[in-house]
Amino acid sequence: MSHLSAKRIIHISAMLLCTSNVYAGQWFIQIDNDAAFGDDGNYSNGLIIGWEETPASNLSKAPGFMHRQSQLSFTQTQAEKAWGLKLSQQMWTPSEIAIETPQPYERPFAGYLAVESHTATYSSSLAQKNWLSLGVVGPASGTQPVQEVVHKIIGSSSPLGWHNQIENQLTVQLGYEVETLLIRQDFANGSQWEFSGFSHSQLGNFRSETDLGLTLKWGTSLRNSFGRLSSHSGQYGNLSAEAESGSFFIYSRASMGYRFNDLTLQGSLPYDSYVELENKQAALTVGVIWVQPGWSVAWSFNTYTREYQSDPGRHHGYGSLIFSWGM
User: Fold this and answer.
1) In angstroms, rounded to a whole number, what is the distance separating the alpha carbons of residues 164 and 96?
2) What pLDDT does residue 41 have?
3) What's the per-residue H, E or C state across 161-225?
4) What is residue 104's three-state secondary structure?
5) Residue 246's pLDDT is what?
6) In a 10 Å sphere around its CB, with 0-12 CB exposed, 13-18 middle and 19+ buried, how is residue 74 labelled?
7) How far apart are the first and last CA of the chain?
């Protein structure tokens, strides 16, 4: 499986590179890490690289399967459409990574590698997105050597429990999100503020959940950036294509929901685990995005409630740093 995952990464990376040469759009790279909260454990690290086409009136330039995927969203008139691809690698660990023996009441080690396609429909007051992803949880994700090398370089604790990680399993996921504007008003010095509501759901053997939430934004050119934010992990809409000059916005997103299953907690293990999923979930994100024609940079702090019942911590968090550039 590890050999297959390496071949998959090479193949997908080549596909993404070919895509950027054929279509105009935006690349982005996202780095997630819990060090921003002085935390170590639960969602620990993520590395995501993705691309989204420049929004257009239709998906005429998109591959055929993207046209079929776009039918998972409701018909929306007077809106721009886009499609994109993403490759992500993420990891979850117990809070004490230097323990070699199994920790039956702690979150297990888990790695996730996935490739994902999405289509999006954007307007200044309504946005829809859907996702289809194929991935693998387990040693084939390649997360163990990544954490071992990084911790060795930075002099952090050596992770010793990866031989007890969630075992290999293929994953299939579908996701859908809709966001609608509630109010937008002018503020001082050419800025605006807006308030919107959103719903995000995903279904699959990796994770199934549904959430409702609210977004508050303040900044410039908010009409052009509506719907580019998302509760979906690693989703970053094409902001720079809409920027005629420099703009920025500060935002906060809060959500509550219900999680039905989570493979990073409930997957097969080489030991008996007594960890039970916490179904009720809540999350809060605060961030800032600076956009220029052709590039952007984003930074956010993300916090979420405990994901399993025996977790002694009430909440955890991580920081996200995103760079994007146009092609």
Assistant:
1) 13
2) 83
3) CHHHCCCCEEEEEEEEEEEEEEEEEECCCCCEEEEEEEEEEEEECCEEEEEEEEEEEEECCHHHH
4) coil
5) 87
6) exposed
7) 34
Query: What is the number of other CB atoms lying within 10 angstroms of the CB of residue 243?
Result: 20
Cα atoms found within 13 Å of the Cα of residue 15, Cβ hemisphere only: 16
- Integer Cα distance of 74 and 317 in angstroms: 34
The one-letter amino acid at 124: S
**What gap in Å lies between CA 203 and CA 11, rounded to an integer?**
26
CA torsion angle 209 90 317 204 (round to 10):
0
Distance CA 122, CA 180 (A): 10
How far apart are the C-alpha atoms of 144 and 237, rounded to whole Å?
A: 30
Work out the widest C-alpha separation in the chain, in whole angstroms.
60
pLDDT for the residue 7? 55
d(CA 206, CA 131): 14
- Residue 325 token pair: 């550039």
**What are the angstrom distances between the C-alpha of 101 and each of 15, 108, 146?**
40, 11, 21
Write down how long the chain is.
327
What is the CATH code of the structural domain delimited by 2-326? Answer: 2.40.128.140
d(CA 174, CA 130): 7
CB-based burial of residue 237 (10 Å sphere; 0-12 exposed, 13-18 middle, 19+ buried)?
buried
Rg, Å, the chain Cα set? 20
What pLDDT, in 10s, does the model give residues 294-317? 999 999 999 999 999 999 999 999
Q: Residue 128's closest CA among 247, 249, 237, 254?
A: 237
Backbone torsions φ then ψ of 156, nearest 5 degrees:
-90, 175
User: Both tokens of residue 12?
Assistant: 């997908």
Q: Which residues of the chain have pLDDT under 70?
A: 1-23
State whether the Cα torsion 103-90-277-166 is positive or negative: negative
H or E segment to which residue 84 belongs? strand 80-93
